[in-house]
Amino acid sequence: MKESKGKKGKAVVVGGSIAGLSCAHALIAAGWQVVVLEKTSSPPTGCATGAGLGLDPLAQKLINSWLKEPQILDCATLPLTIDQNQVTDGNKKINRMLTRDENFNFRAAYWSVLHSLLYKALPPEIVRWGHTFLSYSVSDDKTRVSVKSKSLQTGDIIDDVGDLLIAADGCLSSIRRSFLPDHKLRYSGYCAWRGVFNFSDDENSETILGLKKAFPDLGKCLYFDLGLGTHTVFYELMNKRINWIWYVNQPEPQLKGNSVTMKVSPDMIEEMHAAAERVWVPELVKVIRETKEPFLNVIYDSEPLDRIVWDNVVLIGDAAHPTTPHGLRSTNMSILDGAVLGKCLEKWGVENLPSALEEYEFTRVPVVSEQVLFSRRLGRIKQGLALPNRVDQPFDPIIASQEECEELQQKNMPFLLDIPSIILGEII
Ligand SMILES: Cc1cc2nc3c(=O)[nH]c(=O)nc-3n(C[C@H](O)[C@H](O)[C@H](O)COP(=O)(O)OP(=O)(O)OC[C@H]3O[C@@H](n4cnc5c(N)ncnc54)[C@H](O)[C@@H]3O)c2cc1C
């Protein structure tokens, strides 16, 4: 932790998921005092929470700098060194490779494992579980922010006063809504069936041996299989698991409550299994069929925001940039948001908070805006949906030219290898 030269700043962070915890690490390293308010009643435990995600090289370095045990992240994740796109011929049930990038330097993590590593590396008093954010107010001179939350256990209303309120409350952020009441999420046109197939109790089952024969680079490869107007993504996670996601075009479902995950009935699962038979190779269908408790995410993003700072309130993570998952960006952007914010606060000090927040916004907005739009485009290409420059001729992986297929690759993500100058010293 840095010895702060002047006054020590205090930040109230709303949301204790990946963005909130990353930000807590970065701010503590910058010499700030931090409290994180999270409405979930206790830290998520075990692999029942969430599924898989891919960490880019910069996010890996930042996490390592916070965890302070260099090997711990590598031990908890698997490499993703290959990004491969292939087309599945639904009639013949065979795959053909479209692109293969062997210089992909991501790692595959279980959401709950990443969350737990970040959480356990924080001082214990930082996160207040079971505290729902209610409201905030900014002092007339704009130097203090007062935050009200409710303890779910006692019902008490608690007031925290700080220099900065950080909204890490996810893509449905209520804090963002207070500034942008008309800002809407954009339904992508498709939902994603997701699941984690656990083969730890039988590593030699016909199902897993068949899958590994059909997809021999599992364990180091991010596989994308494209059908006509649909695609699936799958990769291996630590502890003998396969993470899979299957995107299906459909009208926007009605969401109940404050979540983008839908409840699914046995009938819906049965229909999904039958549809998988028609589209994917049998080795993949078997894994989908044998996955316990698949779930359905409704996929949204939103038009990029041109500001993410209002006085001493700042947005980070999905609150700042709801995005579709095709570029593997939301977690990576969130981690970098936290790191950049921490460095800006350290550089300018609490006395110059407006300058710190201006630099944060100036550094992040152009990058996240392009990444959100690129992810959107990637999703629309892979789902065979209309694109601005090819309205009548959506992408068809069966007949696409090599040049068209090149667009499918993750390495084309804008700013993917950029390291913001403000954090260069941190990770070299
Ligand atoms: C339980 C869970 C599992 C996930 N699993 C995966 C996964 O497997 N793969 C993947 O790619 N992404 C997953 N995500 C999403 C992923 O974490 C984000 O897309 C990305 O990392 C950005 O994170 P975020 O912290 O900005 O937003 P989120 O992860 O959405 O977190 C927002 C947090 O804010 C809290 N919150 C919201 N409103 C309030 C309030 N009023 N008061 C207090 N707290 C509030 C929420 O409870 C939540 O913890 C998961 C998210 C959660 C919450």
TrEMBL record:
Q: Which organism is it from?
A: Erythranthe guttata
In Swiss-Prot or TrEMBL terms, this protein is called: FAD dependent oxidoreductase domain-containing protein
PANTHER family according to UniProt:
MONOOXYGENASE-LIKE, OS06G0597600 PROTEIN
**Location of the FAD dependent oxidoreductase domain:** 11-52
Pfam families listed in its UniProt record? DAO
Q: Which InterPro entries match?
A: DHP_3-monooxygenase, FAD-dep_OxRdtase, FAD/NAD-bd_sf
